[in-house]
From TrEMBL:
The gene is gpsA. It is found in: Cytoplasm. It comes from the Bacteria. It is an enzyme of class 1 (oxidoreductase). This is Glycerol-3-phosphate dehydrogenase [NAD(P)+].
Length: 332
């Protein structure tokens, strides 16, 4: 049994907290909103972010106090909206126990710096590489909250840290695999959200399987090229965190990114789609960061580029698809 703290009681943070509790750990959730803290602590329920779970496990509690949240933690899991992570973690910098392992569940690239979440977390907490772990895979929170069978990838350059976290989140319905490719994991999880926006948009506009498959496959090529240039192991892109997560996210209305895109495809503006989104759609701010990262690493990112025109200039789905390939015929 391990003391684990989860920072951020959103849909995935709370679901992962339940996985950790089901695996036998003592879990403390930290959240800012008193309503969420009281709900989890006093009623074992997160009615704001995860209402589908009526009763969270008894070995799961919550606090709004930062120092109390992390004081005894051996593993600290970060599940905060990516663009808010650096600021939120700054308040924990001097509170994290010296030997605690820090795990990121986040899937995004920071706008402005173009940094991955492993970089943001380590910088914000002044954390050595051997205490950082990333978790990413086809993990739609609502399905895992219902304890449907699923798998994920736990990556760290420190195999001991990856094994410790994998053991801590292993249950009969949630199977972790380990990896050493942190960069690959981060790139897959972040970039597939941009692809899901585009697939969702095509679906919302009424297009079928061929169009979805076209965007997914070209999106996979784009995220593989960018990931390789960033230092990822190409094998990661063919695994659960790569093509696996792409399939889950691009194929499900449970995905906030897919749904955001679908709403754009149906004619909603970015503001309207943001208003009705059921949680953070990380692909929206990450799109600009992917374009900037592509420029930085000299890798073409036509899909992210076209999606940035959708988000900033309001171009239609047809125009977005038209921008993907240009007019020149090339080898695949
Ligand atoms: N949902 C899913 O299926 C999966 C999500 N992920 C990733 O996990 C991350 C979190 O997702 P999820 O929990 O679903 O998102 P939600 O939108 O449900 O929750 C976002 C969380 O971020 C917190 N937050 C936002 N801004 C701040 C801030 N300034 N300071 C502190 N906390 C803040 C929110 O707190 P508050 O409630 O107080 O606003 C909330 O806990 C994302 O990067 C997502 O891509 C990964 C795999 C699966
Ligand atoms: O990352 C996810 C599934 O693996 C969740 O996707 P959304 O953030 O789009 O809901």
């Amino acid at each position: 049994m391990t003391n684990v703290t989860v920072l951020g009681a959103g849909a995935w943070g709370t679901t992962f907290g339940q996985v950790l509790a089901d695996a036998g750990n003592d879990v403390t959730m930290w959240a800012i909103e008193p309503e969420i803290v009281e709900g989890i602590r006093d009623h074992h329920h997160n009615g704001v972010r995860l209402p589908s779970v009526e009763q969270l496990p008894a070995n799961m509690t919550a606090t709004g106090d930062r120092a109390e949240a992390v004081r005894d933690a051996e593993i600290i899991v970060v599940a905060i909206a990516a663009q808010a992570a650096r600021r939120a973690l700054a308040d924990f910098r001097d509170l994290i126990p010296e030997r605690a392992i820090v795990v990121s569940l986040m899937k995004g690239i920071e706008r402005g710096t173009n940094k991955r979440m492993d970089e943001v977390v380590r910088e914000a907490l002044d954390l050595p590489e051997n205490r950082f772990v990333a978790v990413s895979g086809p993990n739609l929170s609502k399905e895992i909250a219902a304890r449907e069978p699923s798998a994920t990838v736990v990556a760290s350059t420190n195999p001991y840290a990856a094994a410790k976290v994998a053991n801590a989140c292993s249950t009969s319905y949630f199977h972790p695999f380990t990896s050493t490719d942190v960069i690959g994991l981060e790139m897959c999880g972040s970039l597939k959200n941009v692809v899901a926006l585009a697939v969702g948009m095509a679906r919302g506009a009424g297009y079928g399987e061929n169009t979805a498959a076209m965007i997914e496959t070209r999106g996979l090529a784009e995220l593989t090229a960018l990931g390789k240039a960033a230092g990822a192991d190409p094998k990661t892109f063919a695994g659960l965190a790569g093509v696996g997560d792409l399939i889950a996210t691009c194929g499900s209305p449970l995905s906030r990114n897919y749904t955001f895109g679908a709403n754009l495809g149906k004619g909603l503006t970015v503001e309207e789609a943001t208003r009705v989104s059921n949680g953070v759609a990380e692909g929206v701010p990450t799109t600009d960061a992917v374009v900037a990262l592509g420029d930085q690493l000299h890798v073409p990112t036509p899909l992210a580029f076209a999606m940035s025109h959708v988000l900033h200039e309001g171009i239609s789905c047809e125009q977005m698809l038209g921008e993907l390939f240009g007019t020149e015929i090339t080898a695949e």
